[in-house]
Amino acid sequence: MTGVIVPDDLPLSRAGVDRAALSRTEDGFVDAALTQDATRVLLVCDGAVVTAAGSGLALFGPTQLPVPTTGDDGWLLLGRGDEGEAYLAWRVPDRRPAPRVGEASDVLVHAAPAETEPAPARSLPDGLGWTLLRDVGADLTAHEAGLATTAVALDAWHARHPRCPRCGAATRVAQSGWSRICVEDGSEHYPRTDPAVIMAVVDADDRILLGHAAHWAAGRWSTLAGFVEAGESLEHAVRREVAEETGVLVGEVSYRGSQPWPFPASLMVGFRAVATSTDVTVDGVELTEARWFSRAELAAAVRAGDVIPPGRASIARALVEEWFGGPLS
Ligand SMILES: [Zn+2]
């Protein structure tokens, strides 16, 4: 296949929402939206959103919320719909304390999936439940995915940035949830996005290089990935990560598509990378195994259950299937 992966093909990449950036700075916009019956609110907490059994993302009218909303700091303006209706998120107070000093909070490209995490300890009426975005992403509509991805990304940023990085004083929420302002020095702070590269490395025989990370469940294999370092280009990051993790050298690098990955703040930038060497030496730290697969080998391994491919909502899956030439399973 030669076509670029259309980002909208990836569930978590679907835009679907007018982000209404100009409305963020309107005084009282959220307060006014909360008086409108047409406004819709989703609930977000620590990577999870409230879903309704059998019908995807749960969206509530402002007077129908199943949890109390107190204070003004928990509202996020996600955007506006076709009829001008506002979409908001309410940040349900976190069940989990902020990461302690020295505790890794942002190393998630290769982190274990959060599938074993308990649901937020906030009771909901029957028929509603907390679902991690990772788990529900592939089942959402374009509209829902755009809302939920933005809400999870913003919620994670607020949770991790309660204090001013310049002076350590408290910050307050501004711009309808899109910035924080230091109460002491007035400095403004905005959500950050950390680019990560993710790549389908293919050799001269058209085999693909997949790896198994140290803390993944047995049998899980995926494309290589890693964060872009300070002062580095995307192309360089691709070549460096592949060399560091597997010893394989990479020549040509071509962009294939991207996907917001708010776990907690990444943007996955996807590439096809052409290997100029094939000897594999894993670093044993990030990756414990890496190997080349032909299409026939990968298909057989997936069929036999020896290889669990990346999740359906992930750009990793899209990159592998683009190379494979169709769905893996
Ligand atoms: Zn400050």
From TrEMBL:
Pfam families: NUDIX, NUDIX-like, Zn_ribbon_NUD
Catalytic activity: a 5'-end NAD(+)-phospho-ribonucleoside in mRNA + H2O = a 5'-end phospho-adenosine-phospho-ribonucleoside in mRNA + beta-nicotinamide D-ribonucleotide + 2 H(+)
GO molecular function: metal ion binding; NADH pyrophosphatase activity
Coiled coil location: none
Gene3D superfamilies: 3.90.79.20, Nucleoside Triphosphate Pyrophosphohydrolase
Residues annotated as signal peptide: none
Cofactor(s) it depends on: Zn(2+); Mg(2+)
Superkingdom per UniProt: Bacteria
EC id: 3.6.1.22
Top class in the EC scheme: hydrolase
Assigned protein family: Belongs to the Nudix hydrolase family. NudC subfamily.
Name listed for the protein in its UniProt record: NAD(+) diphosphatase
Organism (species): Cellulomonas xylanilytica
